[in-house]
Design goal:
By secondary structure, the chain is α/β, with parallel strands linked by helices. The protein has one domain: Vaccinia Virus protein VP39 (Rossmann fold, 3-Layer(aba) Sandwich), CATH 3.40.50. Helices cover 44% and strands 18% of the residues. Helix 6 crosses helix 8 and helix 9 packs antiparallel against helix 11.
Length: 285
C-alpha cells in the first residue's frame, strides 16, 4: 500500500482486499452493490434493496439524462466497489464513469464485470484514493458516493476533492453511515473499534464540510431505519447460511462480522446513528 494513502484509507484497502471480505461482500451483502439498501418489504432480497438505493440516487441527481444533451455526462464515483452503480448509470447511453477505489481485489472484479457487460470503454477504474483523485479540476458533472467516505481519514479533504472536480452547476450525491447529529465518538466505541476509525461524519458535519469546500446541500433525505433494516438483514442472512459460508470464509471472520453487524443495529436502534441520501450543488459562478 502506497504511503500516499491515509492510515484510515490503507486500513480500509487491506480489509477489503482480504479473501474473506471479498467472498462475504460479493456473496452476501448485495452482489454488485455493496451498500445499504432501501427496503419495501421484510422478505425483499438484499440485492434488490441495494439496487433500489442506486436508482434513488440517480433520481436525486436531478439532471436530464445524458442522451437528452449534446455532451456526455461525466460521473466520478468515490469508492466504487464492484461497480454496480457505475454499470447501472451506464444504462443511459451518454454517461461515462471514472471509478475511484483503493481495493485492488474489488477493482479487478469490477473490471471483469465491466468487460462482461461490454462497458470497459465507458467505465474507467482507477486504483486510487478519493482523498487524492488523479483527475483534473472541473472534469465532473456528478460526484457519486455510496457508503464509502466513512473510511476516509480526512473527510473534509474528500469534500474539497469533490468540489475541485465538479464543474460549475455540478452535483454530488451520496450516502454514508453516520453518527446522528450531536452524538460524539465516545458513544460509538464498539462500532469505531470494529472498523478502525476515530469517528464518523454526521448530517451536520457533512453540511459544514461541504459549505467550507464551496458546495451547498440541496437535499437530505433521512432514511436511518434502512440502516437498521439492512444490517439486521445481512446479519440474519449470515446466520442462515453460516455452515455453507464456512466452506469459503474463515469462522473467525464470520464471528467478527456477526458481532460488528450487531453493533450497527444497536447503534441505530438507540438513536446514535444516521443514514440517508444527500445532494450537494456547486454554484454556477
Amino acid at each position: 500500500m502506497t504511503s500516499a494513502y491515509s492510515a484510515a484509507a490503507s486500513t480500509a484497502a487491506d480489509y477489503y482486499d482480504s479473501d474473506d471480505a471479498d467472498r462475504f461482500y460479493a456473496g452476501i451483502w448485495g452482489g454488485e452493490d455493496i451498500h445499504i439498501g432501501l427496503y419495501e418489504s421484510p422478505e425483499e432480497p438484499i440485492a434488490t434493496a441495494s439496487r433500489r438505493t442506486v436508482d434513488a440516487l440517480i433520481a436525486l441527481m436531478g439532471q436530464p439524462p445524458a442522451s437528452d444533451t449534446a455532451t456526455t455526462l461525466q460521473v466520478v464515483d468515490f469508492g466504487s466497489g464492484y461497480g454496480g452503480a457505475a454499470r447501472r448509470l451506464c444504462d443511459s447511453p451518454g454517461i461515462r464513469v471514472d471509478a475511484i477505489n483503493i481495493s485492488a481485489v474489488e477493482n479487478n472484479r469490477h473490471r471483469l464485470l465491466n468487460q462482461e457487460a461490454g462497458l470497459s470503454e465507458r467505465i474507467t477504474v482507477h486504483d486510487a484514493s478519493f482523498e487524492a483523485v488523479p483527475l483534473p479540476d472541473g472534469c465532473a458533472d456528478v460526484i457519486w458516493s455510496q457508503d464509502a467516505i466513512l473510511h476516509s481519514g480526512d473527510r473534509p479533504r474528500v469534500m474539497r476533492e469533490a468540489a475541485r472536480l465538479l464543474k460549475p452547476g455540478g452535483v454530488m450525491v451520496m450516502t454514508d453511515p453516520m453518527a446522528a447529529d450531536g452524538v460524539n465518538a465516545d458513544s460509538l466505541t464498539a462500532i469505531l473499534d470494529r472498523i478502525h476509525l476515530a469517528d464518523l461524519g454526521s448530517p451536520e458535519r457533512y453540511q459544514h464540510w461541504a459549505s467550507e469546500a464551496g458546495l451547498t446541500r440541496t437535499a437530505w433525505h433521512d432514511r436511518t431505519p434502512m440502516l437498521i433494516e439492512h444490517y439486521s438483514r445481512v446479519r440474519l442472512e449470515l446466520r442462515r447460511r453460516r455452515k455453507d459460508l464456512e466452506c469459503s470464509i474463515t469462522p473467525g471472520y464470520l464471528e467478527r462480522m456477526d458481532t460488528g453487524l450487531g453493533h450497527w443495529v444497536d447503534g441505530g436502534q438507540s438513536g446514535k446513528l444516521s443514514w440517508g441520501l444527500m445532494r450537494f450543488s456547486k454554484p454556477l459562478n
